[in-house]
Write a structure and sequence with these properties.
Elements: E1 8-17, E2 20-30, H1 45-54, E3 61-66, E4 69-70, H2 99-113
Antiparallel strand pairs: 1-2, 1-3, 3-4
Length: 118
């Protein structure tokens, strides 16, 4: 993706955990101002991809770009302010809150957990 092109671009991301490759050259693009979900079979791949996009996990190789800016090696802290956040696979939501409010809770939880080793 060129610097002038907006949106999210995950290019060639590889993640290894405990000697096992859980992502091997993963690519993902999403246009700006969209909500994008990653769905897959049980296993660590979708979670690893979400962790890389949110900055909680650094890939062995590949890159994450948002609106042309390379975020691959940057800290995760500013990402929610730029519109990048994740939710966790939990069937329960906080009753009485809207979907947006539930996502904002996840953003805050991500910020609180940013120093926890992955």
């Amino acid at each position: 993706m060129r610097d002038a092109e907006p949106g999210l671009c995950v290019c060639g991301v590889t993640v290894r955990r405990r000697g096992v490759t859980v992502l091997d050259g993963a690519d993902l693009t999403a246009p700006p101002a969209t909500v994008t979900g990653v769905v897959g079979p049980d296993g660590p791949g979708a979670a690893a991809l979400a962790d890389v996009v949110c900055g909680r996990l650094r890939p062995a190789c590949g890159s994450v770009r948002l609106d042309g800016a390379d975020l691959t090696r940057r800290l995760p802290v500013p990402r929610p302010r730029r519109g990048v956040a994740r939710t966790f696979r939990r069937p329960a939501v906080l009753r009485g809150l809207t979907v947006r409010e539930n996502v904002l809770v996840a953003v805050r939880a991500h910020a609180l957990l940013r120093d926890v080793p992955g």
